[in-house]
């Protein structure tokens, strides 16, 4: 956009006096912005410009990247941008802006790329831990990045209270990948204590994840078996580490016993279904039960227990999963956030999938499972929050595979 500025013209008369007249000059912005690179997810795009400002100079250039629906891509402020899984299906454009040497603000926008295409299954992590890689300190995060871990992600441990996290040999894990596993002994008082192995995905804008691992329990005991932690933007501050999704061995409060079955997945919907008020960080205000009971627990989704309903798909398979103590079980989970950035455009396209030992226990699609103002996934946590059990019990995990686009 051109801007006008005053031009002062000075002339001298025969008496040695100077006189001025004022005309108008124009500050113009010329040139353009272009984006180069592959539009396949995971590839680098580069934004470059041929912009110039006359008679001023451009000054410092600020860069921002956007989806084609004008959504700002958080943290994308460099001339280069590596497209993420969440960009698939969107065209991208960049905006260069600044304040020129004469104090005038300017901005210019590139053309929009074609839609980012999927790269298929992308493995984020495919690891087992050895003693050299696994370092734990009480109340300390010890970041580790073993081989075959996707760029901009990392592993960490958090240890608190009386729980312990160590690496142990266990010949029962027969995946052929590694006999090293991670063990948690949990002699916890009622109320519980946090202790977790976490995979940090906060830097890759992840909204859809596939998780696989092996696990074994030694005895009865309740613990949050696996959690997806999100980012709460209720106050616009990007508060991290609240849970969107939890699956855990059931603690039967009424009976005062621990059945030690996996019976359900708790998840947030963005709305408290009893009050109707926004709920930004609850991983249990809605529940999808493996046996299909209590549809009212699905919160605002509240789907009938039939397949392919107008409101969504809630496939359940009529039974709970019972741990066999000392036996290695294989687990597969998928959790996809519902999309949208406002009440007007949010879409019930979230998904939950649970498969254990080759049997599908839950397949829920087209649901709300995230408040629309909240950010992408922050961490994937294992173990975490042992509770309501005073007897020592152990969990052992091995063979972590975390991916997007499908199971690795």
User: Can you tell me the overall shape?
Assistant: elongated
Mean pLDDT reading: 74
Strand tally is 28
Count of separate structural domains: 2
What is the number of helices? 0
The class by helix and strand makeup works out as mainly beta
- Which class of the largest domain in CATH terms? Mainly Beta
Low-confidence stretches: 21-25, 136-144, 176-181, 251-256, 303-312
Radius of gyration over all CA atoms, rounded? 27 Å
What is the H/E string?
A: EEEEEEEEEEEEEEEEEEEEEEEEEEEE
The percentage of residues in β strands lies in 35-45%
CATH names the topology of the largest domain as Jelly Rolls
Major sheet: size, sense and barrel closure?
9 strands, antiparallel
**CATH-scheme architecture of the largest domain:** Sandwich
Helix percentage: under 10%
Distance between the termini: 50 Å
Question: What does this protein look like?
Answer:
It is a single chain. The protein has 408 residues and is mainly β. It has 2 domains: 3-109, Sandwich (Immunoglobulin-like); 122-404, Jelly Rolls (Sandwich). Helix content is 0%, strand content 43%. It contains no helices and 28 strands. The chain has strands spanning 3-12, 18-30, 33-36, 44-49, 52-54, 62-67, 80-82, 92-99, 105-109, 122-127, 154-158, 164-169, 180-185, 196-200, 208-217, 222-223, 226-232, 239-249, 261-267, 286-289, 313-316, 321-322, 329-336, 350-356, 359-367, 379-383, 386-387, 394-404. Strands 10, 12, 13, 15, 21, 23, 24, 25 and 28 form a 9-stranded antiparallel beta sheet that branches. Strands 11, 14, 17, 18, 19, 20, 22 and 26 form an 8-stranded antiparallel beta sheet that branches. β17 (226-232) and β18 (239-249) form a beta hairpin. The chain starts with a strand and ends with a strand. The relative contact order is 0.16. The model is unreliable at 21-25, 136-144, 176-181, 251-256 and 303-312 (pLDDT under 50).
């Amino acid at each position: 956009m051109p801007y006008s500025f005053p031009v002062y013209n000075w002339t001298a008369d025969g008496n040695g006096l100077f006189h001025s007249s004022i005309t108008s000059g124009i500050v113009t912005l010329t040139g353009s912005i272009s984006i180069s690179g592959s539009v396949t997810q995971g590839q680098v795009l580069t934004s470059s410009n041929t912009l110039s400002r006359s008679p001023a100079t451009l000054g410092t250039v600020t860069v921002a990247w956007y989806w084609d629906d004008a959504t700002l891509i958080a943290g994308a402020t460099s001339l280069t941008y590596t497209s993420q899984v969440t960009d698939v299906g969107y065209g991208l454009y960049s905006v260069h802006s600044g304040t020129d040497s004469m104090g005038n603000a300017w901005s210019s926008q590139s053309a929009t790329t074609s839609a980012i295409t999927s790269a298929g299954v992308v493995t984020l992590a495919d690891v087992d831990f050895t003693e050299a890689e696994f370092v734990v300190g009480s109340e300390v995060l010890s970041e580790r990045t073993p081989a075959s871990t996707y760029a901009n992600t990392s592993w960490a441990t958090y240890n608190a209270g009386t729980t312990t996290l160590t690496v142990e040999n266990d010949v029962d894990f027969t995946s052929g990948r590694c006999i090293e596993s991670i063990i948690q002994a949990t002699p916890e008082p009622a109320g519980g204590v946090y202790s977790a192995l976490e995979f940090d995905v906060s830097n890759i804008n992840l909204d859809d994840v596939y998780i696989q691992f092996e696990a074994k329990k030694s005895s009865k005991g309740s613990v949050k078996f696996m959690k997806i932690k999100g980012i709460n933007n209720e106050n616009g501050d990007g508060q991290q580490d609240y849970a969107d999704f939890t699956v855990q061995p059931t603690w039967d409060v009424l009976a005062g016993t621990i059945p030690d079955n996996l019976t359900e997945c708790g998840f947030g919907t963005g709305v408290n279904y009893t009050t109707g008020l926004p709920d930004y960080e609850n991983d249990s205000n809605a529940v999808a039960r493996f046996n299909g009971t209590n549809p009212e627990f699905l919160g605002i989704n509240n789907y009938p227990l039939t397949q392919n309903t107008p409101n969504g798909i809630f496939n359940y398979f009529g039974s709970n999963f019972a741990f066999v103590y000392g036996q290695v079980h294989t687990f597969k989970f998928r959790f996809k956030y519902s999309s949208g950035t406002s009440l007007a455009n949010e879409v019930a396209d979230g998904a939950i999938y649970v498969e254990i030992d080759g049997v599908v226990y839950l397949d829920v699609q087209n649901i709300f499972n995230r408040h629309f103002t909240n950010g992408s996934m922050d961490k994937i946590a294992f173990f975490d929050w042992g509770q309501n059990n005073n007897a020592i019990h152990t969990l052992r995990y091995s063979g972590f595979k975390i991916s997007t686009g499908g199971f690795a």
